[in-house]
Design a protein that fits this description.
The protein has 140 residues and is mainly α. It contains six helices and no strands. It has one domain (2-133).
């Protein structure tokens, strides 16, 4: 369920115990907390790490941790799903915005090349090509 919530941006309807509908942000926070607990119980299991990295990438402010987790898995060739590759590509494309301009532009150029490779890997694994498109290209 947590993975479905992450992959739909929190739009899978969950209800609080009092049957009060929750906002998508609440769903995402629940999914991240659930996947953190699963990852803690299953240390060393790459599927749990992939799911948690993908979830963190969907949360505002968690990009650094998600990038470290997914980047490490990617360097070890352990990314297990098309959405994980897509999440890493999105993180790479957005990285460096907070850096000074003299560092931002070379960093973005290198990250754009890595993101293109990750998007290509995503497309080879994906059942639906839309999963792998950069956010600005969706729906066109």
């Amino acid at each position: 369920m947590a993975r479905a919530i992450i992959r739909t941006g929190g739009s899978v309807p969950l209800f609080h115990i009092r049957r009060r509908a929750l906002r998508p942000e609440d769903h995402l926070r629940w999914a991240v907390a659930t996947l953190r607990a699963i990852h803690a119980r299953r240390q060393g299991e790459t599927t749990a790490a992939n799911d948690l990295g993908e979830a963190l990438a969907a949360m505002p402010g968690e990009g650094a941790e998600a990038g470290d987790m997914l980047g490490g898995l990617g360097r070890s060739d352990l990314l297990a799903s098309a959405p994980a590759y897509a999440a890493l590509a999105r993180l790479r494309r957005s990285a460096g915005a907070e850096r000074p301009s003299w560092l931002r532009y070379p960093l973005r150029a290198g990250n754009a090349a890595l993101a293109a490779v990750e998007e290509a890997r995503c497309r080879t694994m994906a059942r639906t090509p839309a999963v792998c498109e950069p956010p600005g290209d969706r729906g066109s």
